[in-house]
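Q: For a teaching handout, I want to show students what a protein-ligand complex looks like in token form. Below are the inputs, and the small molecule is adenosine-5'-triphosphate. Please produce the holo structure.
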Amino acid sequence: MKFSTLVSFFERLQATASQIEMTEILAELFMEASEDDIDTVCYFVLGDIAPGYAEVDLGLGEKTVISALALASGRDEEEVSRWVRDEGTLSALAADLEIPWKEEFRDYIAVDNGLRVEDVHDGLMQIATASGSGSMKKKKTILAAMLAAADEKERSYITRLATGTMRLGAGDRTLLDGMSHAVSGSKELRPVLEHAYYTCSDIGHVAKILKQSGLSGVKRIRVSLNRPIRPMLTQRVGKLEEIMEKISSARIAAEEKYDGERIEAHKDGDEVRLFSRRLSDITDQFPDVVEGVRSGIAAQTAILDGEVVAYDAGEGIFQPFQQLMHRRRKYHVEKYVAEVPVRYVVFDLLYLEGDSRMSAPYPERRALLKEILTPSEFLTLSGMKVCTSVEEIHDAFSSNLKRGLEGVICKSCASDSVYEPGNRSWQWIKWKKEYETELTDTLDLVIIGAAAGKGKRSGGFGSVLCAAYNEEEDVFQTVCGVGTGFSDEELEALPEKLEATRREKKPSRCQVRKRSEPDFWFSPEYVIEVLGSEITQSPAHTCNWNEEEKRGFALRFPRFIRWRPEKSPEQATSAEEIAQMYGQQGSG
Ligand code: ATP
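A: Here is the structure, written as tokens, with adenosine-5'-triphosphate included.
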């Protein structure tokens, strides 16, 4: 596919704010792209070069891009920097500059018939893999060569891809809808495509298989080692009794609920890789967990699901989440391994000796896990009690709280209790101590705007505008503005922290009522945990917007609790969950 053809699709996507139109354009793009190009096309639409877990990093800062633009245009860097300030963005300048072709660029890019999608991908991958001495010069020259081979519009999009600023307004769910439309004329295939995507975490791979072998091929997509599986999520209820009704299983496993970070471990012989909830490779952060899995799991190959928790071995107690945050670092890891010891508490087994175990019932997965796991200083099996009544669940819950745990996760033991990747399933229900003491559970919301501070807060922000994620529409919808709960230092640091996500206008995929528009906009990136008193209906917020009644859901008296760096914006509390919580308030 010619890159110019893809660019014309990018322009159409960018020109619309309608999700439906976007889906139709993406369906057309899916049909037009070849089997060979479709994976790259998908990554590019999302502003990526490769699937997220592959951690492809171009390593291009603004300075290097300016230097590449200077090299390509024959101008000096000072001049280019000044123009960037005038034009506002690197991509706008890249489109405007005159960039002549030079024969010496031929060593980096072959372009006799114009750029193809494949050429742009190869160029970007070469930039990403350039390493060692002279790598910056190489990165800069490859980018200059690509820009010289491109026309005006192509240059703008190459620069956006290179700087991670694509922002076409299509999320991965809209892309899946586009594929579904292309094949069936409607969104009906989204669940099948989503299941495959959540199993392999590579949207390009799903698209390629769909083109090559149709839906039956997609249904055959299997788990593979070192490709993270999306973690299964838990539902919540308003009353403890409802757990028995919702989990229609005579036996319910009440597992201990730990307050740490979700980690999926892949063991391949002696190699162990750890993936976070955002599917990032965080192996280097936890050498102790790696060792625990390597020596404590008696299997050649396995994929485990669990929670890593800070642990005080002297006292024999788990520590709060805040402690674990000290382990979130790239440097001086060893020092913090000693200072903040952790334990990996494993609660599920998804893959064993070459086979997926996700379709085996929970008791079977658990029995296998028990067989292969030898507890050690860094590794243990989650505590669990099988219950047959709500009283027994409550006992387990109370006993967990006494031991400093957060509550229980109740899990179905029925014959259909399969592991559902990425799904918030009624087979797993959480019950936490807050549910008994507070009016509502906390929400994890995405910051999309801020109001300028007044009085004591002038010069900074007074509050941040927060949104929930609407999974169905693949958009962010507002729920509240949060101004309390931040410490003075946190408040002061907010503008700088959010600066990289600052936007001139409302980011696409954000739905905001005119009356709630903030002074500053931010693209959805940062997730915070917020506690409120009650969910109400309000004309000021768009969460689950009801056009007839002109009302959405809002959170009253919201309070900042903590940052949730381990959650992606799409992992924020969903609009559907908020609607559910609103209903539970009524019944509770
Ligand atoms: P959510 O995960 O539902 O989006 P959250 O990140 O705020 O919300 P919680 O509401 O505290 O998390 O509860 C769910 C999380 O609890 C799981 O995602 C998992 O990380 C963690 N967890 C702790 N213990 C267990 C367990 N025994 N089984 C399953 N999950 C557990």
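A: Two things your students might notice: The CA atoms of residues 444 and 529 lie 4 Å apart. The pocket of adenosine-5'-triphosphate is lined by residues 233-234, 255-258, 262, 307, 347, 382, 409, 430, 444 (CB under 6 Å).
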